[in-house]
Amino acid sequence: MLHIAKTFICCIMFLEIIFGFGICSAQIGVSDMYQEALWINLDLSKEQRDQIDGIILDADKQMRAVRGKQKMVDDLYKFDDLYNYADSLSQMKEIRMDAGSKITQVLPLKDREIFESQLEESQQLTEQYTMMMLQLDLTENQQTDIVKSLIKSQQRVWSVVSDTSLSWEQRRQKLKRVNAINLITGKLTTTQRSAWKKWNQSLNLMNL
Question: Transmembrane stretches, by residue range (predicted)?
Fold first, then answer.
């Protein structure tokens, strides 16, 4: 029962980390699986981009304040450490979601509708991936490794998106090097990876 409870908590944390982000599907590529990546993939005027960069920089100040109170991710050795980290994850998620809401208000109506549709699909797919995680019977070490990898991945994405010294195109190119799906599958056994692959294929077919 304890193992099941911990697995459930791990998957909830997984949801916290990538809630509101896209998952690789027929419509959304792996490089676009984060909400932040969707922000800078929008085709907008320079004035609108500057507005969005201002929102991102304001959110970045809040993110830095939260991270300043955290342990380093590499210092989280046990699952219980990650469990205690959940409050910080929740705070950072709220900051990202608030920034996303403000960015949505900047968008022209047509782009706003497209963006909101992508986010809704992202939430649904994230929930489906979380359910898949529950079925993989992950060990405690796997849970810890996967969550730590996803935290690092999200931090990497945020550092790129918030680097306003780079153009939007430069940020887009750097984000293509971040692949959270590989971070997950790289921690799985051969049997688990096979189950994940079959499930992912069926999900992609459902979304064609």
Answer: 7-28
Do residues 85 and 71 lie in contact, with contact meaning Cβ atoms separated by under 8 Å? yes
**CA–CA separation, 84 and 144 (whole Å):** 12
Q: For the chain, what are the domain ranges?
A: 2-206
Non-local CB neighbours of 92 within 8 Å, separated by 6+ positions = 63, 66, 67, 154
> Cα Rg for the chain, rounded, in angstroms?
17
Give 203's pLDDT tier (boundaries 50, 70, 90).
low
What pLDDT, in 10s, does the model give residues 107-157? Answer: 988 888 888 887 777 777 777 777 787 788 888 788 878 877 888 888 888
Q: Which two tokens stand for residue 31?
A: 């490089």
Angle at 43 between CA 170 and CA 122, to 5 degrees: 90
Share of the chain above pLDDT 70, in %: 74
Q: What string of H, E and C letters represents the secondary structure of 50-83? A: HHHHHHHHHHHHHHHHHHCCCCCHHHCCCHHHHH
Give the list of residues 6+ apart from residue 173 with CB closer than 8 angstroms, or none.
none
